[in-house]
Structure to design on (196 residues):
């Protein structure tokens, strides 16, 4: 079952990602590169690659601990996407917009498939709690890049504050909130892995 789910995640993510590089019926690489700034897309691509690796290694007969841990970190990253949309972006921008078209997969279906696959069908190794904290790494890394590009970067190299985390200059509060979210999600996934 893990192999099927992981291959499904990879195939669906590739198909949805390719649509990001098309506009008005033609390929638009510039448009595709622009959306690669979003944590949503990056986390789903990370999840897809980790899922493909896990599926291939399972088919080969052995999923090593490092690949299992990588898959866990990727699962944590897409779970952050899911929770952020449901708790913050959905109420702010509207759930209809957040769950329309390919975003239904990126924001909901893909993350749920990753959680189900990893937590219920891939209990290959014990998960000590300190190891569970590695699930925070994608948020820490992306958070640092976002801060640099949105808050501290020179004007000509800046990103727009597309997530609204620096609204009214409250970037420190937003950064702390995202770190807490990543911690709680790591705690949740650690707990799910220990059920049964």
């Amino acid at each position: 079952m893990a192999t099927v789910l992981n291959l499904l995640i990879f195939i669906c993510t590739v198909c949805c990602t390719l649509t990001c590089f098309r506009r008005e019926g033609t390929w638009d690489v510039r448009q595709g590169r622009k959306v690669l700034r979003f944590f949503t897309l990056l986390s789903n691509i990370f999840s897809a690659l980790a899922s493909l690796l896990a599926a291939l290694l399972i088919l080969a007969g052995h999923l090593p601990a490092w690949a299992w841990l990588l898959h866990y970190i990727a699962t944590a990253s897409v779970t952050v996407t899911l929770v952020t949309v449901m708790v913050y972006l959905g109420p702010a921008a509207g759930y209809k917009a957040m769950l329309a078209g390919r975003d239904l997969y990126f924001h909901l279906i893909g993350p749920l498939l990753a959680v189900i696959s990893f937590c219920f069908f891939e209990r290959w190794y014990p998960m000590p709690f300190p190891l569970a904290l590695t699930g925070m790494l994608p948020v820490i890394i992306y958070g640092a890049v976002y801060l640099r590009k949105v808050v501290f970067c020179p004007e000509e190299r800046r990103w727009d504050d597309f997530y609204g985390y620096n609204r009214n200059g409250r970037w420190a509060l937003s950064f702390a909130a995202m770190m807490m979210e990543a911690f709680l999600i790591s705690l949740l996934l650690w707990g799910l892995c220990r059920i049964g």
